[in-house]
Design goal:
The protein is α/β, with parallel strands linked by helices and about 350 residues long. It is built from 11 helices and 8 strands. The strands form 2 sheets. Strands 2-1-3-4 form a 4-stranded parallel beta sheet, with helices on both faces. Strands 6-5-7-8 form a 4-stranded parallel beta sheet, sandwiched between helices. The radius of gyration is 37 Å and the shape is elongated. The chain starts with 7 loop residues before the first strand and ends with a helix.
Length: about 350
């Protein structure tokens, strides 16, 4: 088969997004990542349109992948595929039948229900708009309004990660960590459990930055792509995240954006309910507990500084027992001297 021809024809009675993503995910398991490997034929609502798609798959020798919610169309495509010798895979039929049995309900069989303009749809649109308007530290006054805040150094994938999570319906803001530049004070108003700090392997980041420098025709000797400078930036970001704020670290070294986004969302969901309220103390502890621990640590440090001079003074200052013993020894010595002088005086008179 020519590389220009698709490996999969994805047929759907709606947008075809589900079939397309499933086809791409399956192809990735065989090392196929070519653009156009999955061709989508969407909004199939008639037997005639369905037959045209089956004949197309036969002509180019592609696998037919379909997501059709109408029982009649599903039956028709199976018959056509068998007649024309086309291998076909039903992605959604088995799931619908399984749910119908499990729930003891009859499916609606209405195409496109998952893409209706419902409350969830508008929530996603608002989240995407929020993410765009609060990218790379813009509008820091909105940080307390964010569901999730992502921080990290340059080229650590803050923006693509923010956009991906926003498409899942979460309001995301991201803030750069730059050495020598203070973070916006509004970050202190955000619950630390909502903040995720990105870290990355220095060598991996160096390659990413150098590729960026080449595309922008930047000087190759710039500190931006220097490994030592990158290590300093990463260490500074880690100290800022963990020691100063108690934020959650996310290592992007060998993670795809989708994988990292899923991990962040799962962690967020374990801490907060759908309405944004805290589920309760997590394993890591609530922000109040961490704040209390931080305050206690500072208090101990302050107290230890105060105690240090006192200890030194105490070491220089003799104890009460030592004072008494010294005084007694001094009296005894004085008495002995007086006795010696008296004895000498008596001897002289004789």
């Amino acid at each position: 088969m020519s590389p220009a021809q698709p490996t999969i024809i994805a047929v759907s009675d709606a947008t075809g997004e589900t079939a397309e993503q499933a086809g791409k995910a399956a192809l990735a398991q065989f090392g196929h990542h070519e653009e156009g490997a999955v061709r989508v034929i969407s909004n199939i609502r008639s037997v005639e349109a369905l037959e045209a798609a089956v004949l197309k798959a036969k002509k180019i020798g592609a696998l037919l992948l379909f997501t059709l919610v109408e029982t009649e169309l599903r039956g028709a495509v199976k018959d056509m595929a068998l007649t024309h010798g086309v291998r076909a895979v039903d992605l959604i039929g088995g799931l619908i039948r399984g749910l119908a049995t499990h729930l003891d309900l009859t499916p609606l069989s209405v195409p496109g229900l998952s893409h209706e303009l419902d409350e969830e749809y508008f929530k996603r649109v608002a989240a995407i708009e929020f993410s765009v308007n609060n990218d790379d530290g813009k509008n820091p006054q909105n940080l307390p309004k964010a569901d999730i805040v992502i921080v990290g150094i340059s080229r650590a994938s803050k923006t693509p990660l923010s956009n991906y999570i926003a498409h899942r319906g979460y309001k995301v803001a991201n803030v750069p960590i730059v050495m020598g530049v203070p973070l916006p004070r509004q970050l202190d108003e955000v619950d630390p459990d909502r903040v995720f700090a990105l870290t990355i392997d220095p060598v991996v980041l160096m390659k990413i930055r150098q590729a960026r420098m080449a595309s922008l025709r930047m000087r190759s000797d710039s500190d931006y792509g220097d490994l030592r400078q990158i290590r300093r930036e990463i260490n500074h970001a880690k100290r800022t995240a963990q020691e100063q704020h108690g934020w959650t670290l996310v290592d992007m070294s060998r993670k795809a954006v989708e994988e990292a986004a899923t991990a962040i969302i799962e962690t967020f969901r374990s801490r907060f309910a759908l309405d944004g309220t805290r589920r309760g103390d997590t394993k890591k502890g609530s922000s109040k507990k961490r704040a209390a621990k931080k305050t206690t640590a500072k208090a101990k440090k302050k107290a230890s500084k105060k105690k240090a001079p006192n200890k030194q003074a105490a070491a220089r200052k003799p104890s009460a027992k030592k004072k008494a013993a010294k005084k007694k020894a001094s009296k005894k010595k004085a008495a002995k001297k007086r006795a010696t002088r008296t004895k000498a005086s008596r001897g002289a008179r004789r």
